[in-house]
Write a structure and sequence with these properties.
Elements (H helix, E strand, L loop, with lengths): L13 H23 L5 E4 L6 E3 L1 E5 L2 E10 L2 E5 L4 E6 L6 E2 L4 E6 L1 H61 L5 H58 L2 E3 L4 E4 L8 E2 L4 E6 L4 E8 L11 E6 L2 E15 L2 E8 L12 E7 L4 E7 L3 H5 L3 E5 L5 E6 L1 E5 L3 E6 L6 E3 L11 E4 L1
Parallel strand pairs: 1-24
Antiparallel strand pairs: 2-23, 3-18, 4-13, 4-17, 5-12, 6-8, 6-11, 7-10, 8-9, 10-12, 13-16, 14-15, 14-17, 15-16, 18-22, 19-20, 19-23, 20-24, 21-22
Helix pairs in contact: 2-3
Length: 418
């Protein structure tokens, strides 16, 4: 009988090795998940749906685009001084006018009747004053006539007194007759002295009153002139030579006092008037430079006037041409202007894009050199214009970033590009 052979049990069986290998892989996977896996939230993005731009080192100038409307450099506004309804129109909008040309005539019956009544009263008052002045002159001659008569009486009584004085000395007449002649003479002299004082007072008073009357008459004649001017104001005339514009009136239409009727544009060139967002009001100043392209040529402008009143979130400025102006521009034409806030300087720049609305310029998706993914990177944006942002921190020239809108990315830390 043969003996049984002892079979040694294998220590490392295939099954055991497979189990060990499986456990090892699982442990490595757990370690990977715990320590090595990229835990950042990610999103797969189609490259064709985004815009990638290269960071540049180039010249940068800060400016904003504004729309400027071409207007005459100098304009005279025409307003209705007196109200009334339009009786007659002499010219049409756009007419070339000379100084003094009549534009239209207004009619105001109530005002005209009132003016006539006032004019009548003034003429009556002037007539009364002139009569008073004539009375003063007459009084002067009456006072002078009294003095002449008194002088005659003095001469007469003096002659009688001297004669009776002699006769009294010779004893021909009585003392009573002599004293009566003396009293008559003294009385006449006293009357003369009183008349002379009255003439002096009348003369002083008459001079003062005459001056006042003359001044009053002059004022009244001036008032008559004003009344005449008021009536003439119903005729709207051109105050200066130029082209009539913004003029609109119809026969029978009522125009109120002070109402704007139109304007006269002087043939002395053009200016541009533009609206600027109120955010820039503290950065806009007189003399600030701007430019625009017209028919392939650049033209320079400078701000000449700032209207600080803010309306609907913007304020207005006037810009004058610094040198030549285009020969083909017309009144009312709109031109796009670049208003400069700085001169051109060396800077790191990145093209404008929709990313700014999501990030506020605080971060951007930086594209890895492999081009396979993009990650968030903090940056700092400085100045900007219509084409570029100035990058102050976080990016270097030659690096690539995503500049299109981030609305669909949900703020993911990493974008996998496919």
């Amino acid at each position: 009988m043969g003996m049984d052979k002892v079979i040694e049990k294998k220590k490392w069986t295939t099954r055991k090795l497979l189990n060990i290998a499986g456990i090892s892989i699982f442990l490595i996977f757990i370690l990977y998940l715990l320590f090595f896996r990229d835990k950042r939230s990610k999103l797969y993005v189609d490259k064709t749906q985004i815009t990638i731009a290269t960071v540049l080192a180039d010249k940068f100038q800060e400016f904003i685009p504004i729309d400027g409307v071409v207007l005459p450099k100098n304009t005279i506004y025409i307003d209705a001084v007196q109200g009334g309804f339009v009786e007659k129109i002499f010219v049409e909008d756009g007419a070339q006018l000379k100084k003094g040309d009549t534009i239209l005539k207004l009619s105001n019956t109530n005002m005209e009747l009132s003016q006539m009544e006032t004019e009548t009263r003034i003429y009556e008052a002037i007539n009364n004053l002139e009569n008073t002045k004539i009375g003063l002159e007459q009084n002067k001659f009456i006072r002078q006539s009294e003095i002449v008569e008194l002088q005659y009486s003095i001469d007469k009584t003096n002659l009688d007194f001297e004669r009776k004085k002699q006769l009294f000395a010779e004893g021909v007449i009585s003392k009573k007759e002599f004293e009566d002649a003396q009293r008559e003479y003294d009385f006449t002299v006293e009357q003369m002295n009183i008349s002379l004082e009255l003439k002096k007072l009348d003369s002083i008073s008459a001079v003062s009153r005459s001056k006042n009357i003359d001044a009053t008459i002059i004022r009244m004649h001036n008032n008559l002139g004003l009344l005449k001017t008021t009536i003439e104001n119903l005729y709207i005339k051109a105050p200066i030579e130029g082209q009539l514009s913004s003029f609109s009136a119809e026969i029978g239409e009522t125009k109120g006092a002070g109402e704007h009727l139109g304007q006269i544009d002087l043939p002395e060139g053009f200016k541009l008037q533009a609206n600027i967002d109120e955010r820039y009001i503290s950065r806009v100043y007189i003399g600030q430079e701007a430019e625009f392209d017209f028919a392939g040529q650049m033209y320079s402008l400078a701000i000449s006037k700032i209207y600080t009143d803010v309306t609907n979130g913007s304020f207005q400025v006037d810009l004058f041409f610094e040198r030549e102006e285009p020969g083909q521009i017309k009144r009312g034409q709109t031109l796009q202007i670049r208003l400069s806030f700085s001169s051109a300087t060396d800077a790191i720049i990145v093209k404008r894009g929709g990313f700014f609305q999501e990030t506020g310029g605080n971060w951007i998706y930086f594209v890895d050199p492999s081009g396979e993914f993009a990650t968030k990177r903090k940056i700092k944006i400085g100045r900007q214009n219509t084409n570029f942002y100035e990058v102050m921190e976080g990016l270097e020239p030659g690096e690539q970033v995503i500049i299109s809108s981030y609305d669909s990315f949900g703020g993911k830390e990493k974008l996998v590009l496919k």
